[in-house]
Design brief:
Layout (H helix, E strand, L loop, with lengths): L3 E5 L2 E5 L4 E3 L6 E3 L4 E3 L1 E2 L8 E7 L8 E6 L3 E5 L5 E5 L3 E12 L2 E10 L4 E8 L4 E7 L7 E8 L5 E7 L3 E9 L4 E11 L4 E7 L4 E6 L3 E6 L9 E4 L7 E5 L2 E6 L4 E7 L5 E10 L4 E7 L10 E8 L4 E8 L16 E4 L3 E2 L10 E7 L9 E6 L3 E5 L5 E5 L4 E12 L2 E10 L4 E7 L6 E8 L5 E7 L7 E6 L3 E10 L2 E11 L4 E7 L4 E6 L3 E6 L9 E5 L8 E8 L4 E7 L4 E6 L6 E7 L16 E4 L11 E6 L10 E6 H8 L3
Parallel strand pairs: 5-26, 30-51
Antiparallel strand pairs: 1-2, 3-4, 6-29, 7-8, 8-9, 9-10, 11-12, 12-13, 13-14, 15-16, 16-17, 17-18, 19-20, 20-21, 21-22, 23-24, 24-25, 25-26, 27-28, 28-29, 31-54, 32-33, 33-34, 34-35, 36-37, 37-38, 38-39, 40-41, 41-42, 42-43, 44-45, 45-46, 46-47, 48-49, 49-50, 50-51, 52-53, 53-54
Length: 659
């Protein structure tokens, strides 16, 4: 007799013994050895010409119903004996399901299938209590033949649909908005897959998309819509696998020639820590595989119902597996409870140039007319964009490769006080200055301040007293310089008044004028603080180090300032999130958040953020307590060049329980 395997403290150990296998919820009892799965044919399903069958949840026990596809009869809801309870006529194949979905106030299972005659994905709701199917939406046909589909429930409880093409293309669609409980299909992105991709499935909890490449093996892709184009091999030795089904922290895969089901368990880094298998009996050619797990067993990765399709007999089968429970070190964990999600309500027009282009925003508040305020964003290939609070572009300056930008108010000149924006100009290693009309918000070029830096990078401004203005700039080699601005004729110039440095590459910085301190970001190390005045010396004190919540690169930094308290917001680029701390010592961490999808407004989330800015000024209906603006490194839904996202501060305040 073959042995089972259990992973204890990261070590695979063999254990023996037989188990009694029994079907729950009224299914007949099955008996088998601990290494054999007995498949049981479903009655009345031999003439369906189907492909996939999936158990449907009704309550917390085993499956009372099964959802199936048929090339002649469409999509079918079957009872345990294979008798049709409801159907949607047509020609359908491929099937994916998510249970426990709220839709129009009802709890349903949400399914996706494909109308093969039109090559169009179809979204179907399955009301198990009423034994009823309803077509909710028919998506447009992609410009490729759909080879497989799979569903994904993300951190926001939004439901996504993946389409897989055998020629190596893929699409991701948002299909259900959990907040409004409505099906509203929107294409999020297109991406590349291996040629010969034939099957997919998603582990929701760990946002892992598994893709089967025929005659090569299985790949792991990130399923999150804001993720990058990366992949990792799970197994490139299982070349005859034809079907995949995600399980908690892992995957089941089926080999029809060997009549074998494989179980892969993965740790937090997606490394395989167990690769075990079970033989199938009672079925000739098991072609496809689906899995259902009762709610009472979802704390383990060991108890599953299987839906199987026999390609030789064109018949559906079901079975029940109890695998030894695995205790694995370094198992993936859900996001920490402080990692909440907020939604943007506005996005700017895309910058219009492909690549890593948009970088840093600054918010200019029109104190006379706050609703007429501006967002100023850098374009590190071309210049400076000026947007209104609706995201419309109002002005553009082809001023060179501008990287970081900041704003201050009331600079004293011969003609009176003006507002200024300063940006680091990588084309000339200089500080580009722009004046802002205090009433209209009209922006004009106001001069260049030369520096002796060899590779200027980050920038922020500081106002030590009314009428005065300083600019901090840094170099990729770690050097910081502080410049004092002054009027020279009709232009504005500057003089260097201090230098200091960090040990490695910096970029983001922000001056907290009220406290006369400067926060300095060192991309791989964390955030430091130093006095902002020229007489403050060169000593840097640590604020927060990179680690679990703040993951490098450390990028944009801003201060949300109000009379009673202030918060420091830092872009944690390594995990696509934003850290919030007190802006005063001891710099207590208040939490972290991600910027997710606003499905109702059709705005994607934000990821790979470089720069950000925040204000506490009341800016109208959307932003009564101010707003955060972040650069979005991956602009999607639909895919476009980079842009900036606006988030109401009150949503962050509520999510993190801030004052």
């Amino acid at each position: 007799m073959k042995k089972n395997f259990i992973v204890i403290n990261g070590v695979i150990r063999a254990v023996g013994g037989a188990v009694m296998i029994s079907l729950l919820a009224g299914c007949a009892a099955l008996t088998g050895s601990d290494d054999v799965i007995l498949a049981r044919a479903m009655s009345n399903t031999s003439n369906l010409s189907g492909e996939t069958i999936i158990p449907i949840k009704v309550g917390d026990k085993g499956p009372e119903m099964w959802l199936a596809t048929s090339e002649q009869q469409g999509t079918l809801l079957l009872d345990r004996q294979g008798v049709s309870l409801d159907d949607l006529p047509g020609e359908t194949e491929h099937l994916a399901v998510r249970h426990g979905v709220k839709l129009a106030g009802a709890s349903v299972s949400l399914a996706a299938t494909v109308d093969t005659a039109a090559n169009r994905p179809m979204i179907v709701s399955v009301n198990g209590q009423l034994a009823h199917l309803k077509r909710e939406a028919l998506l447009p046909a992609p410009d490729f033949e759909i080879e497989d589909i799979c569903l994904f429930r993300d951190r926001q409880q939004l439901i996504h649909l993946f389409l897989v093409d055998g020629a190596g293309r893929g699409e991701q669609w948002l299909v259900l908005d959990s907040a409004s409980q409505t099906v509203m299909p929107r294409k999020i992105r297109e991406f590349s897959l291996p040629p010969g991709s034939s099957s997919c499935t998603v582990d929701d909890a760990n946002s892992r998309l598994f893709v089967l490449e025929e005659e090569r093996g299985i790949w792991i892709y990130p399923a999150d819509p804001e993720s990058g184009a990366t992949r990792k091999p799970l197994s490139l030795s299982h070349t005859m696998v034809t079907g995949l089904a995600a399980i908690p922290n892992g995957l089941l895969a089926i080999d029809p020639e060997q009549k074998t089901v494989y179980r892969f368990l993965l740790d937090a880094d997606a490394n395989v820590v167990e690769n075990s298998r079970r033989s199938l009996s009672g079925i000739a050619t098991p072609e496809q595989l689906s899995v259902y797990q009762p709610a009472s067993d979802q704390h383990t990765a060991s108890v599953f119902y299987l839906g199987l399709y026999d390609d030789e007999t064109d018949q559906y089968f079901h079975s029940f597996i109890k695998w030894p429970e695995a205790i694995i070190e370094n198992l993936p964990e859900a996001a920490p409870p402080v990692m909440v999600t907020v939604e943007p309500v506005v996005q700017t027009r895309p910058v219009g140039v492909h690549g890593d282009v948009a970088d840093d925003p600054a918010i200019w508040v029109n104190h006379a007319d706050p609703a007429n305020s501006r967002v100023i964003g850098t374009n590190k290939k071309q210049g400076l964009h000026i947007y209104d609070l609706s995201g419309n572009e109002l002005q553009f300056f082809a001023s060179g490769r501008l990287n970081n930008v900041d704003v201050r108010y009331g600079f004293s000149t011969a003609v009176g006080l003006i507002d200024l924006a300063a940006a680091s100009n990588r084309s000339s290693n200089s500080i580009a200055l722009f004046s802002i009309h205090p009433d209209s918000g009209e922006v004009s070029e106001a001069g260049l301040v030369a520096t002796d830096l060899s590779e200027i990078y980050g920038l922020c401004m500081y106002q030590p007293e009314p009428g005065a203005m300083h600019v901090f700039v840094n170099d990729k080699d770690g050097r910081y310089q502080q410049y004092e601005l002054y009027q020279q004729g009709q232009k504005i110039n500057g003089r260097k008044i201090r230098s200091f440095r960090v040990a490695s590459q910096p970029e983001g910085c922000v001056a907290f004028d009220r406290q006369r301190v400067l926060f300095v970001g060192e991309e791989s190390e964390g955030v430091w603080t130093i006095g902002a005045d020229a007489s403050a010396g060169t000593f840097l004190s640590p604020v927060v180090k990179t680690g679990s919540l703040l993951q490098d690169d450390v990028e944009g930094i801003a201060v949300y300032e109000q009379p009673g308290n202030a918060y420091l917001i830092v872009s944690s680029q390594g995990n696509d999130s934003y850290l919030v701390l007190d802006a005063n010592a001891p710099y207590q961490v208040r939490g972290a958040f991600r910027v997710g999808i606003n499905a109702r407004a059709g705005i994607d989330g934000a990821s790979e953020t470089d720069g950000l800015d925040v204000t506490s000024a009341r800016l109208g209906t959307h932003f009564p307590r101010g707003m955060l603006v972040v650069q979005d490194g991956r602009n999607r839904m639909p895919e476009a060049t980079q842009n900036f996202k606006y988030i109401p501060w009150q949503s962050i305040q509520t999510a993190l329980n801030l004052e």
